[in-house]
Structure formats: structure tokens, C-alpha cells
Amino acid sequence: MKIRFLGACQEVGRSAFAVSVGGKYLVLDYGVMVNHHVGFPMHIPPKEVEAIVLTHAHLDHVGSAPIFYIHGGVPLYGVQPTFTLTSLIIKDFLKLSGYYAPYEFMDLQTMLKHTRELQYHQSIDVGDASLTLVNAGHIPGSAQAIINSEGKRLLYTGDFNRQPTRLVDGADPGNYKDLDAIIIEGTYATEDHPVRDGLEKEFVEKVTEVVEGGGTVLVPAFGVGRSQELLSVLSAYHFEHPVFVDGMALDAMEMLLKYPSSLRDSSVFERASKMAHWVDGWNDRRRAAKTAGVIISPAGMLKGGASVFYMENVAAKKQNAVFMVSFQVPGSPGRILLERKKFVIHGKARPVDARVERFDFSSHGGRRELELTLSDLDKKTKVFIVHGAEGNCKKLAEWASKEQGLDAKAPKTGDIIEI
Ligand SMILES: [Zn+2]
Ligand SMILES: [Zn+2]
Known about the structure:
Helix content: 25-40%
Distance between the termini: 5 Å
Shape: globular
Bound molecules: zinc ion
């Protein structure tokens, strides 16, 4: 079995891998890099592609997939609501960055005609291989892919989380045996996450404190996954003050309500959707910014979207707060806010008087879970660590070699490895 590493090697973004399935390749994710600039995975000729798997609806995993549908197309596999959410985020990407995209809206539409919905644990034939998707515990519809091809068995984790969150059940731990190879994410290779229960309690207590003091809490959060997770946390704790939800988070929420089986507890989620004030237009936005309550709004790193408007209105007052809940790329406005308590807008750094705090609501496994997964593997399993910031993939590979005696490496983009 040949594996081609087309992106997400010693970096987070543009996830893309290809696995030989007889004469052609099965492509596992084909994302974009959206952190500092827009970047794409390495090219693979469409005529060499048998089919494509989308592990979940985040841009760094799906943003380049329509490229394969410019001329014709191949089957596109995934677990719903992955396709529905993918359509939403790619449309948004085209609106914001269409100038950089190597495909058009029409190609997205063609792609959506080639979708083949799978259920978790359902196996299908792809070329001479078989493909099975199992729960990844990352966002609704997220999957890990198991491929049996050319006498070898490979698992690709995509983004995964073994701990349950409010939104989804944790990844099933029973899939890491009898593998010849694993491609595993290493986003948090060097960082443990706090215990979930304590974190949720602390978040709700601090939000309540600010709101009862007459303040507004801005929670910048990515539209698909994190926004709905936080709303569900507030709903689970029966938070009684106004909660405004803005931007793409709303569309994503409407879509998720149509796929209750993709959620851990659809009744908590339904209650959450009912407690939310859905922001519609600028009048609503201005009202939300003046209300003692919570505003959940994209973008998670304060790089654009309605959260920039809210920052301008919330940041200057002491009684308000900005609670950061997403991963902040170095150099992003969100990271600068956390490090220097300044908000950069139109190239100027403005002081922030509102309280600023970070809450680690990750939907990726932390160091402990990644190490646990690696220690679950049989010693024959070859390990490829991807989807991690510089240094992180290598560190985790070193740990796996030294502590577990595994053949582990952090591949480079462009590597072709035979297992
Ligand atoms: Zn993801
Ligand atoms: Zn990712």
C-alpha cells in the first residue's frame, strides 16, 4: 500500500493524503490552509483518483475538494451532516476568498451531486479496497477512515477526540488494533486539556458573574462546531440570561437540527437552539452589543465576521468581557488580544478594558489522549503523525519511538511511503 502525503505535514491546514487502492488512489480529505495565507495541497491528477473521503466539515479538510469536480467527478464519501455543512462553509469561503480559489461555485454544485452518504461502521468497496468510517468524536458527522487495501489495513484519524463533548460522543476507542499503519493528528501533542466538567462550570460561573454585573460577554467562536458546543454548555447549565448567536453559527445550527442522530443529546441541543436569540441584521447586532448577556459570533480568531463589530463595541468597557474559546494561531488578532490585551483593527492596536480570558474547549484530543492512542497500537503499526504545529509532530513521533518502541515519523509534504 502506497501513501502519498499531500499536505498537513508538520503544519495545521490543507489536510490531504492519498492511499493506493489497486490502480488508482483514494483521497482522504483535500483541504485548504487558511491561517496566514490561502494555500492548497499538492496536486494529484484527477484521472488517478478512484474516490474521495471527507472526514469532517472543516475548511482545512474539505476546502479544496471541488477541484476534482471541474471536469467530471468521482464518488465522494462521508457521514452526514458532513456534506450539508461542507456546502455551507465552502460557499462562505468562496464569498470571502473566492479570488484565491482554484474552482468556482459551479464545481461545488457538481461535487454535491457525487456525494455518497455512509453510516458509521458501514463498509463499502472502493477500487480493490474496502472503506469503513467510524466516529471521530470531533464535530457532528466527523469520521475516522479505515482502509483495507493490498493486504494492509490503515486508519486515518482525521481530527479526533476520545472525550465526549456536549455536542458529540467521544471517538470509539476500539479501532486501534490490528493496524499496519495509522495516520494520526498531533494538534495538541504537547498540551493537556483541562477536565471538561470543571472547565464548563468555570465558564458558566464567569459568564454569569459578568452578565449579572450588567456586562456583555463576547465569545468569538468558529461557526461550525464550537459555537453550538458553547450554546449547549449554557443550555445544559440552564443559563437564564440572553444569549445571542450570530453569523454562520445559525445556519449550521439549523442544519444540525435536521440530523439529531449525529448529536450526543439532541434534546439538549434543541433546548439550546430555542434559548438563542438569532441575530438578524445590524439593528439586532447593535441591540446585542448593548445587552447584559452573551454573544457567540464568528470569527473564532477575531479575523473578520461580526465579532469585529462586537469587539469595537464591547472591548472598551470594564464591565464587559471577551472569552476566547478557540485555538489562536500566532499573530492572529485573537492571539494578540490574549498576549497583549490589545485589539488590532485597521492596522492599529487599541487598548482593551474588558476582561479577557481563555477557556480551552478543544474538540481535539490532548497530549494524554494522543499518547493513550499510540500505546493502544500493536507494535507492528507504522505511525505517521500529521496536522500539528512545527515541532509538535516530531516530538510526538519521538515519544512514540522511545516510549512505545513504534516505528513513528512526522512525514514531509510530498513524501510517498510504501507500507
Ligand atoms: Zn476539524
Ligand atoms: Zn483539522
